[in-house]
Structures are given as C-alpha cells and as structure tokens.
C-alpha cells in the first residue's frame, strides 16, 4: 500500500461550493458542534501514536498565536513554547509526521523572512490608524539544537501554522464583514483547540483503518513524513533543483517529443496525494485524420514549390480547397473552422495567384491585434520569398506604430499591407486620393478573427467596410473579393454579410484538418479538509497553479488563462513563490505572464520566447485568445469561466493542441454561481450553442458619424443607399449639408478631419505611466517604465501604498502624480496584496425621454447619468485575510454618460422589505435578467451590487435608490442605451418569461446570472428578480413566491431606499408603448 493511498481522503466533497462568499441561508442551520463518531470499527492505537500529547501541545500554542492576528507563527517561536509544555525536545520528524497525517491542514515550509512583514520599508500614503505590529519584532528564541541541514539563519524562516486558523470573531455573514478581525475569545480558542484535536484523532483512525494487515502503519507514516521535511532553499549538498522531485529522485523536464501522453498525465494526476476527485466531468475528442482535396484549377508549380519549401505543405485540406475554389469563381468566402486548421492559406494562395496574373495587384490583410499582424506578416514574407518570380513583392505593416516618414513609400510601393480597421477609418479612407493606385488594384481583402467584431465596435467596422467598398467602386474597382476567417460561430455567413454588406458568400464550415486527441476536464476545487466541510474549499487559483506546476514538470507546455489582469499577476506571483519553494528554478525561468498593459517590447519578447519553444508556461488574460502563433501548447487551464462566455471558453480551449498532438483543456471552476452552474451542467460547455454575434446596422448615431466621414471622402448621393441602407436619406437631409446639385457634404462642425471626431473603439482613455525607480540614485541606475495603465484602472491599482504586481514581481507604489500621470514604484518583496476600498455611484441626473410600459402604469426613462467613483482607502490582505487597513485621501473620479432606468414601484419595495426579502438581491438579479435578453448588452453596464456592502456586519450609510439602471461606458457613444430604451417592452417581457420558465432554482447564466458581473453574481435572488419584473410589467404577483422566499429571509442591513423622481428636461412628453 503506497503512502499516497494513506494520505488520500475518501470522503465525498459536499455539493455546496465553499471557498468564496456565499449568501446566508435562512433555512435550518447545520449543527456546528462536534462531528458524529465515524461509522465502522474504531481501531486500537499502537503505542507509537501516543505522541498525541505533542499534537495537543502544538495545538494549544498555535491556537494562542492564531488569536493574535499579527503574531509571527515561525517554527523557532512555536518550538520554544511547545518544548516548555512537553519538557522534551520537539523534533522536526514529529512535525513532518503531523504534516503527513494532515497534509491539507498543516503548513510547514520555509518562507522568505521579508514575506512575513506587514509594512514595506517605505510606507506609502498616510494611515490614520496606528500601524499594526511588525512580524520582525518576533525574533528567533533559543530552542533545542534540532536543526535542518545545519543551515545558519538567513533570509528564510521556517513557518509552522494550521491553515484553518481563525483570526477572530466574524459576522454571521461570513466573508462579507470587511473589518479588522478582533482577537479570539477564550471560548472560541477552546473550541478551536477541541476541533483540531478531534481532527487529529480522526486522521489517525483513518490511517489505521486504511492500512492492510500485512503492513505497519507506523512505518508507512514515517515514510510519508520524509516527503514533508522542509528543505532550506539555501541548503548545500542537496540535489539540484532541476533534478529532484518530491520523492528525492533525480529528473529533468522532458523535451517536448519525450513528454508523456496526456492520458498518462491525467492518470498520474489521479494518483497524487492531493487529488481528491476534483475532476467532476471528462470528455474526450478522439484524434481525427486530415481530409485532402484537389484544387480546380490547380495552382502553378511555383506556388506549389513555395508552399512546399516554406510550410512543408504538399496537399491542401478539404476546407482550404473549397474556399480557394469559391474565390476563383468570384465568390466571397467565410471559413469558420477550428483553431490551427490552416485558415491563413485560404487567402494567401489566392493572393499569390493574383500577383502571378497581375504584378500590380494589391491586398489588404486586417487583424484585430498588432501582434497577430506581425506574426502573419512574417509567414507571408517567407512564402513570397519561396515563390519564384514573387520574391520582389513588398509587404508592409501599416498601423499606428508606422513612422510618418515611411507611410508615403508604403502607399506608393507596397503590394500587401497588414493593417487594422482603425487605420482604414482614420488614415487610408480620409486620404483616398493618395491611395488610388493601391485601391484601384485591390484584389483581395482578408479579415482574420471575424468573430472579434461585434457590438458597438463591430457596428462601426460594418460602416467602415461599406465606406471602403464605396471608395473602391468610385475609383473603378468593383472586383475586390472579401475573405474572412473565424473561430466556430453560429451563422457565419450572416455575420459576414452584416460586417461587409455583401452577398454571394460561400460559407465553409466542414473542417478537413487533422486533429490530435483532446481531453477536456472540468475541475472543482476540493474541500480543504473532507472531514470538516466548514473549512470551505481550496481556492481555485491554488488548484490551477498546482496543476500547472505538475504539468510543466512533466514537459507539458501550458497556458493558464485568467479573467482579469490582476488575477494574471497574482497567479504569476503564486507560481514564483511555489516554484521557488519547490526548488524548481529551472521551471520558473521558463514561465512568463502575458497581458494587456505590457510595453510593446515586453510583449514581443514574450512572444518570441514562446514561439521558440523555450517557455514551459504562460499566464495570460484573453489577450492570447486570438490566434497569435506562440508555438506548441499542450494544455490550457482556464481559471474561472471566461467573462466572454461560451465563445471565449471555446476559443481559449482551442489554443492547445495546435499541431495535431494530443492536448488537454481544464476548466478550473471558481466558487461563483456561473462557474458552479457549469459544474452541475458540464455538457453545456460543449453542446450549447453560442449566441449570435450582433451588429447594429440601424444605429442612427453610428450611421451619422460614418456618413459625415464618407461625405468628406466623396460627396454622397441617393445612390449610396445601396451601401448605407434606408436610414441614409433621412440622416443626410437633417445632419449633412446639401448643395444645389443634390450632393451631400460633411457638416462644418466635423471639418476639417471628420474621422478624428469618430472613434470606432470609443474615446481613448488617458494613461498613467508606471515607472520603476528602484535603481535611481545607484551607480548606473535609471528609471524604467514598466507599463502604461488606463485611467479607469489606475485609480484602483496605483494609489500610494498599493502593491503593484508586474510579471509576478511585487512593487510598492511610492508616489503618484495626477498632474503628470505618473506613478513611481520601488521593488519590494512583500507577502501581501492590497485591495482598494472604494465605491461607485451610478445616478440618473436628468430625464430626456419617458416611455410607457405596455399594460402597466409604470414608465421607462432615458437620460443623463453621472458616474461617481471614490477610492477612500485600501486593505492589506494575506491569504484572503485582512492584516491592515489604511485610509487614503484621493480626489473622486466623476464622469457623465447616457443611459436608461426603471424605478421599482414603492409598493413592491415595501412588500419585499416586509417579507424579509433583500431588495438589493432582487434588483441586481433583475438587471442581469434584462441584459441577458438584450442583444447589444456587451456595450451596456449596470450598477452591480457589492457583497461586502450588501452583507456588511454593520449598517451602511450609503443608500442606493430602488432602480434598475443601465448606462453606456463613459467615452463610448453608440446609441446602445437608446436602443435598449426603444425596445424596453419586448426586453422586459423576454426577461420575465426566461426567468419564470427557467428550470434552475437559485438562478443561472440563462436567466439572472452574468459571466461579466464584476461582483460574481453573489448578491442575487431569482425570485426577487421575477417579482420586480412582474411588477414593472403590471402582472399579478403570486403571493406564494413571497412565502417561498420568506423561508430564506436575509438579515442584511437595508441598503436600498425608494427611488425619487429625476429632473425632466423641458418639453419631454411620455411616448406610447
């Protein structure tokens, strides 16, 4: 019987997802007393296990330490106290045996001394509270001579602690009481000691019951303990980090071709001591052979040679042949197939054919990111250089980074440009007279990653493509063919038709490329201790980084996708700490994070490292969802369900196995409702269809903006309605200038450069420079810009005293200048993170329009909205526990936008309060229900309810109106809020019907939960949402709903008050439903 078998827990994890804030249920509470005696035989303990007294002494000392929130729980300090109780030495081996018995509970490892501090060397900002005592105050006391490896004390400290330590009396609303926890009461300390003693007894009984009759449990335990004796990072004469594993055997990371199969890796995972049935669902897609076909007409010998020499391509897949044949017949094409199926060949081969037939031919290749454009440009240049007769063809990048002095030469000599829609809108079309040579000979326009263009941005792009087609026709070119590639989406031809405004589209969706076997795993973090579910679940990030380390050590190249930038850096920080603690610096040197905000130089360097095959692991945000070729990836880990929904999930999962080898995709679920919905319904991850990609071609706001631009390029006439649709004439008559001959010209207020007044991505935010000044003042030391941060993020990340994380390294923000938009940082190894204490109010200021709700006495409103954000302090957090709170005095951030709102009727608000329902939960869920049924919801925001406020242990002074409110992000104006207002009746009805008929009990992503909710949908009530929707629609409310909800009454303090009327602009009349 193996040691791993002894350490494995057989208890089944509870159904509820702990480990994160959850609402307090009003149902009968579970008893929190002692656990009932285990069923079955209670074994007789061998005499060896009488060292229960050692555990009791340790337990008593650690319980005392845990009642002091900032006490340093280092092994020397603990050992001194324990030895005074036992009157005998406390040996490391005994502690290691306790770690082996309770591996999930006991923390026994070396930690850098600097990570035990609470304050940095330089305290940023001014705290209005007295500083908490520093851990450095507690020095190593004399103890027994038992030492590990005889290493002198240096910057590392041996820490001994219990992971289940409680740091004080908490509110009954667990997880939401954001206040510094007080010390444990004597009664609570006694209860903690008893619980741990009982857990030790259970662990010994579990070991004895699991040991076969022919084996010695003492020997097994002592053997297992060898794996838990901590090795000092500075110890000498130990195997090198790159060669040892947890068993002490020598090894190195296998080369890619020598790595084990994914099936073998999964089998090994399931044999690990830490594996506790986290895999709740598996699906395997078996390997598929490629299907080839022949082009008709065939390609020339020179193009065949180029494909063979540059790509080793000797035959084409069926989807490639279908697309190229369609283009040769004069059709437009969209190819919607899996990732890495060779889609770029589909437009590169026709380009070479056009160039062979006419050397004057030109092409535009459009990509959503500069990195992807650079990647594809290099591939095309290699192909051209391998094609006899086309080596001279000039390929250029034409984007915002292209120097002004080079742009004229590109216009005059380039045959192919790699660009984006921003440049076509703002640089090429406004200067169409200088681009006429290029546009007149334009044979092909290829748009990669077409699924990237939807919502407001996609609606702008749709108008830009129509302007491009119009200008090409004006210079005599009506032969341009359009080809686009996309991940698997619903209705690809319809989406292409919306974006380009063209017909005659060939849709290619049958994928002929080969693919390797792919294993999908759904992974739910286990309980910290299966014998004590009250401790909650292990954090999803801990699980994801542990799995990532396991895979990398076996030569499996991994990408870990995180939902937000901060999670990306925290995961990288965790990997740094864990790999360093494991002594695996050889792996750490081959791991990097990749996200938005990094400098262009850093991003290109990381991409080169990845493509070269040097990197074993990448921690990334969705910046790498798109198809940048970063080489072979064997596995994808998704930390939490992506905010982009199922489309993002499948796009991320597709990044692994890009070269037909076996691959792995793992979804590690958070404790959030959306994630847990897919834990309970994993088939939906694969079988449920994605939502249609929406493009708003009827938005008069967007259309007018582009008509102003189009009229400046070439004056408009009535004939241009074939490009811009039936709304064009009315807008031209009312918004543009008409001359005597009937031509429409740009309105003077848009002149002289209309495109500068129209931002297709929204107004670009101001940015703060984040500067590392650690080496300033030292010989040869200079300041270094780490990255640039948008204003909307800077407020929450670079206040004075904040911990800023870059590539997993921690920096302390020393100084912030709002005048120069610069933050100065110093490098500092700290073992805490900071979380801003802030709030954002979304308030209606003035009503511009009022609309009836059909069949209801209530109204919908549209108008001006103010966003007010204030960061008033921050918490220092370690292991999700608050260790300090600091106040800040920062100016508020105020901005205005437009939006719509619906006021909750007062009788319904009173009804919910009288029935004990939480109005904040009901309003938040109703807002998400509304957005879930609105096609353009990606470009609307709402005021998400914050659990720390709504379930606060004390009453909040900040009361919010009982109002469903939706607004456009500041800096963006696409008329989306107007669209929602105009269709409010149908959206409300759809939302009501969806919520009422949904089979779920607590709410799910199909009804009242949103993957993009920044507060994790934690403040939510499906029944409350249904009551509000019924009230707004004038439908009768079933009193049984109230009775059902009253069983789970919330005792949170009231944070919602009646909504007051908003000032109405002069002349506003109520519009009919």
From TrEMBL:
Domain named Helicase ATP-binding: residues: 324-507
Record's keyword terms, sorted: ATP-binding, Hydrolase, Nucleotide-binding
Annotated ranges, domain Helicase C-terminal: 543-702
Composition-biased stretches (Polar residues): 237-246
SUPFAM superfamilies reported for this sequence: P-loop containing nucleoside triphosphate hydrolases
A single Gene Ontology CC term: nucleus
Gene3D superfamilies: P-loop containing nucleotide triphosphate hydrolases
Gene Ontology process terms (BP): interstrand cross-link repair; nucleotide-excision repair
Annotated region (Disordered), positions in chain: 1-37, 231-256
The protein, known as: P-loop containing nucleoside triphosphate hydrolase protein
Organism (species): Lentinus tigrinus ALCF2SS1-6
């Amino acid at each position: 019987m193996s040691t791993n078998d002894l350490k494995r827990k057989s208890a089944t994890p509870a159904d509820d997802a702990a480990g994160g804030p959850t609402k307090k249920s009003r149902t009968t509470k579970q008893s929190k007393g002692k656990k009932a005696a285990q069923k079955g035989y209670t074994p007789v303990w061998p005499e060896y296990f009488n060292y229960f007294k050692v555990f009791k002494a340790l337990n008593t000392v650690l319980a005392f330490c845990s009642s002091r929130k900032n006490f340093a729980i280092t092994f020397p300090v603990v050992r001194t106290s324990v030895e005074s109780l036992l009157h005998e030495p406390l040996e490391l081996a005994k502690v290691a045996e306790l770690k082996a018995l309770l591996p999930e509970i006991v923390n026994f490892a070396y930690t850098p001394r600097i990570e035990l501090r609470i304050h940095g060397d330089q305290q940023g900002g001014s705290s209005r509270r007295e500083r908490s005592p520093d851990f450095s105050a507690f020095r190593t006391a004399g103890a027994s001579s038992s030492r590990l490896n005889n290493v002198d004390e240096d910057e590392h400290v041996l820490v001994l602690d219990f992971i289940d330590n409680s740091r004080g009396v908490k509110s009954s609303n667990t997880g939401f009481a954001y206040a510094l926890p007080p010390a444990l009461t004597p009664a609570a300390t006694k209860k903690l000691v008893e619980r741990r003693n009982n857990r030790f007894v259970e662990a010994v009984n579990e070991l004895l019951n699991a040991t076969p009759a022919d084996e010695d449990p003492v020997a097994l335990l002592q053997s297992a303990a060898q794996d838990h004796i901590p090795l000092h990072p500075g110890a000498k004469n130990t195997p090198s980090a790159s060669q040892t594993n947890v068993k002490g055997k020598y090894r190195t990371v296998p080369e890619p071709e020598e790595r084990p199969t994914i099936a073998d890796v999964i089998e090994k995972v399931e044999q690990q001591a830490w594996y506790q049935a986290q895999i709740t669902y598996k699906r395997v897609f078996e390997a598929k052979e490629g299907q080839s076909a022949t082009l008709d007409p065939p390609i020339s010998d020179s193009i065949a040679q180029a494909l063979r020499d540059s790509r080793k391509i000797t035959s084409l897949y069926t989807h490639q042949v279908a697309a190229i044949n369609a283009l040769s017949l004069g059709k437009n094409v969209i190819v919607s197939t899996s990732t890495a199926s060779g889609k770029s060949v589909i437009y590169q081969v026709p380009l070479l054919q056009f160039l062979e037939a006419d050397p004057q031919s030109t092409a535009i290749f459009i990509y959503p990111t500069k990195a992807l454009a650079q990647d594809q440009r290099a591939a095309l240049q290699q192909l051209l250089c391998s094609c006899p007769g086309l080596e001279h063809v000039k390929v250029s990048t034409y984007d915002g980074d292209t120097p002004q002095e080079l742009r004229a030469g590109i216009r005059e000599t380039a045959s192919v440009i790699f660009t984006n829609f921003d440049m076509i809108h703002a640089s090429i079309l406004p200067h169409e007279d200088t681009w006429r040579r290029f546009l007149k000979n334009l044979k092909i326009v290829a748009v990669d990653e077409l699924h990237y263009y939807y919502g407001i941005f996609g609606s702008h792009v749709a108008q830009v493509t129509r302007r491009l087609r119009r200008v090409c026709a004006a210079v005599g070119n009506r032969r341009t063919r359009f080809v686009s590639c996309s991940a698997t989406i619903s209705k690809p031809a319809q989406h292409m038709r919306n974006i380009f405004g063209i017909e005659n589209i060939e849709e290619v969706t049958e994928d002929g490329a080969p693919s390797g076997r792919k294993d999908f795993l759904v992974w739910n973090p286990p309980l910290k201790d299966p014998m004590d579910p009250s401790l909650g679940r292990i954090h999803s990030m801990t699980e994801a980084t542990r799995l990532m380390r396991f895979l990398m050590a076996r030569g499996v190249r991994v990408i870990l996708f995180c939902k937000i930038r901060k999670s990306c850096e925290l995961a990288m920080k965790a990997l740094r700490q864990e790999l360093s603690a494991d002594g695996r610096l050889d792996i750490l040197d081959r791991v990097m994070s990749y996200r938005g905000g990094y400098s262009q130089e850093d991003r290109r360097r990381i991409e080169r490292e990845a493509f070269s095959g040097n990197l074993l692991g990448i921690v990334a945000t969705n910046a790498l969802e798109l198809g940048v070729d970063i080489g072979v990836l064997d596995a994808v880990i998704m930390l939490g369900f992506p905010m982009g929904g199922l489309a993002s999930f499948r796009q991320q999962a597709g990044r692994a196995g890009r070269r037909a080898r076996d691959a792995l995709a793992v979804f590690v679920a958070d404790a959030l409702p959306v994630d847990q919905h897919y834990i309970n319904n994993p088939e939906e991850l694969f079988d449920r269809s994605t939502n249609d990609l929406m493009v708003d071609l009827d938005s008069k706001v967007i259309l007018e903006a582009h008509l102003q631009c189009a009229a400046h390029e070439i004056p408009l006439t009535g004939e241009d309605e074939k490009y811009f649709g039936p709304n064009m004439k009315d807008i031209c008559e009312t918004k543009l200038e008409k001359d005597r001959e009937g031509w429409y010209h740009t309105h003077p207020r848009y002149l002289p450069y209309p495109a500068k007044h129209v931002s297709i991505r929204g107004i670009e935010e101001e940015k703060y420079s984040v500067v590392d000044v650690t080496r300033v003042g030292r010989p040869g030391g200079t300041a270094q810009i780490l990255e640039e941060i948008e204003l909307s993020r800077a407020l929450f990340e670079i206040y004075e005293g904040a911990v800023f994380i870059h590539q997993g390294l921690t920096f302390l923000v020393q100084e912030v200048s709002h005048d120069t938009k610069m933050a100065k940082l110093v490098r500092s190894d700290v073992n805490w993170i900071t979380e801003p204490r802030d709030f954002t109010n979304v308030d209606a200021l003035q009503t511009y329009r009022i609309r009836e709700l059909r069949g209801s006495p209530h109204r919908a409103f549209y108008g001006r909205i103010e966003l007010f954000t204030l960061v008033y302090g921050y918490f220092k957090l370690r292991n999700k526990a608050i260790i300090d709170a600091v106040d800040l005095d920062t100016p508020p951030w105020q901005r205005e936008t437009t939006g719509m709102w619906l006021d909750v009727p007062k009788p319904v608000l009173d009804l919910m309060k009288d029935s004990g329902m939480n109005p904040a939960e009901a309003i938040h869920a109703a807002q998400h229900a509304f957005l879930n049924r609105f096609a353009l919801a990606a470009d609307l925001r709402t005021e998400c309810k914050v659990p720390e406020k709504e379930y606060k242990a004390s009453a909040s002074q900040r009361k919010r109106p009982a109002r469903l409110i939706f607004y456009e992000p500041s800096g963006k104006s696409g008329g989306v809020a107007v669209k929602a207002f105009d269709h409010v009746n149908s959206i409300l009805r759809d939302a009501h019907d969806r919520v009422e008929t949904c089979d779920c009990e607590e709410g799910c992503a199909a009804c009242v939960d949103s993957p993009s909710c920044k507060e994790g949908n934690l403040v939510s009530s499906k029944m409350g949402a249904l009551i509000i929707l019924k009230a707004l629609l004038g439908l009768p409310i079933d009193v049984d709903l109230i009775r059902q909800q009253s069983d789970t009454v919330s005792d949170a303090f009231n944070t919602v008050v009646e909504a007051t009327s908003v000032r109405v602009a002069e002349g506003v009349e109520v519009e009919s439903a």
